[in-house]
Amino acid sequence: MVRVALVSLLFFLVGCDDTVPGLPRSLETEDQDFKQGQLFQKQGESRKALECYLKVIDARRGAAESHLEAGRLCSDLNDPLPAIYHYHQYIRLKPTSEQRKIVEQMIRTAEKQFMQQLPGRPMEPDAVGSGDLQEQLRKLRTENDKLKREITDLTRGQPRGGNTAGPTPPVAVATPERPVTATPLPPATTPGRAFATYQVGRNDTLTSISRKAYGTSARANDILRANANQISSPSALKIGMTLVIPE
User: Fold this and answer.
1) Mean pLDDT, to the nearest integer, of 80-107?
2) Which among 76, 130, 209, 245 is placed 20 to 30 Å from 96, CA to CA?
3) Are 2 and 121 in contact (CB under 8 A)?
């Protein structure tokens, strides 16, 4: 039943493309927000990098590479549901990409991660005991790291814009992956809210409400969670609802 609900929610999310038609179709990877997102990633600023990629997605049509990077960041931030959405959007926009099989595997990994987060549910039907769960988590992290390395290798071998005509542009040397340590990351700073409650109006979405409240669309999932008692998914949003805007 949980699996069916997850698939239904993802079907709605993948079908909702809030890109704006008519914007210039310049090369996505030349966008200043995209470049800033890459810089934040190299500096380990995952949340700031995610906000940059979301700006690209909001501003242009067909931002496939930004969806892929946003999905990877959401997975790193242990937020699998939006990660699955962004992976599906990448496949929708680039159905013939050489990376498709790898991204599909990353979707399956994120689905397992989401199932494991559900209260009282094991990650796998035959998983019993906390020791087994920890072993499954370790395997999933290892698998996810391997897939990300394969995507990086494929990306180096082809232009991001998908245009095979002309020489491949030089690729910046990737920084080596940091070893996993027990040192916690400093808490990410998030913009303060502009108001504590909000009444839903015509054409409002969780993304647009997040931008009004915080100045960024990155807090849409926080608003969804804070109002889980009255909206179970973005599609359940209705005109006239009064939403709680979390800190």
Assistant:
1) 94
2) 76
3) yes
Mean pLDDT of 122-136: 53
- Domains of the chain: which residue ranges? 2-156, 197-244
Radius of gyration of the chain, Cα coordinates, nearest whole angstrom = 19
The length of the chain in residues reads: 247
Whether residue 244 contacts residue 197, with contact meaning beta carbons closer than 8 Å, is answered with yes
CATH code for the part of the protein at 197-244:
3.10.350
Given 3.10.20.340, 3.40.228.10, 3.90.79.10, 1.25.40.10, which CATH number is that of 2-156?
1.25.40.10
Q: Among 75, 53, 76, 64, which residue's Cα sits nearest to residue 17?
A: 64
Tens of pLDDT along 24-73? 445 899 999 999 999 999 999 999 999 999 999 999 888 999 999 999 99
* Phi/psi of residue 244, nearest 5 degrees: -85, 130
Q: What b/e readout covers 72-103, taking b as 16+ CB neighbours within 10 angstroms?
A: bbbbeeebbbbbbbbbbbbbebbeebebeebb
Copy the structure tokens of residue 54: 């979301």
Q: Hey, what are 81's tokens?
A: 């549901």
Q: From 88, 81, 123, select the one nearest 233 (Cα to Cα).
A: 81
Cα–Cα distance measured from residue 247 to residue 100, given in angstroms and rounded to the nearest whole number: 37
Percentage of the chain modeled with pLDDT above 70: 67
